[in-house]
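Example 3.2
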Amino acid sequence: MSKETIYPKLTVVGAGPGDPELITLKAINALSEADVILYDALVNKELLKYAPIDSLKIYVGKRKNKHEYTQEQINNLIVDFAFTHGRVVRLKGGDPFVFGRGSEEILHAEAFNIETAVVPGISSSIGVPGLSGIPVTHRGISESFWVITGTTQNGKLSKDIEVAAKSNATVVILMGLGKLKEITEIYKKEGKSNTLIAIIENGTLANEKVALGTIETIIDEVAEQNIKSPAVIVIGEVVKFHKYYSVLLEDWNYALN
């Protein structure tokens, strides 16, 4: 490839929550034109079939306690590949602006005068509950919803959860399974031990698993169902709309007030 044919560009693309059919047409178009794809751990690899055969496809995923690349290294790869190859697609699970650090990568690229673009994706915070039948808002039940990271940059539980627990809003927590005990303790202090909660592992995929219960019972349910990360936590009365809730209601002998 000659220098004259290289047009540096970064497109940050949301891959959706897992099911490859939940990718957008605009995202597919971006992939089909990519010279380089840097993709994350939660991206379904089936999506790489939309990219040109001769494009570079590089895994830069980050999982708990296992990072292939630091964020600084990823930023540098974006710039280097944009100038040496041209069109770089940064493919991220869910939506790139929902705890995806998409804006950081765009700002870094723009600092080098690289053209940038964004393709939104379906966030797991909405898509995963929705496909399970849980609406994050419902008239007369939940007028708003919070989307909170369970683990902050310093590895601590987000303090926003303490504020959210005081409200009647639906609370969706991403990357929070490892801090489930802390989360339930916060709700118990607010007198909300009977609040409904769903934890959905591998949402939208064939191997999806779910634990349904209350703040009081969910830790045992998670253990029984052997729920692991990645998982989405949904807290609030809207959990009663989950497609399996009515069956479990009979087992629990539990009735909402």
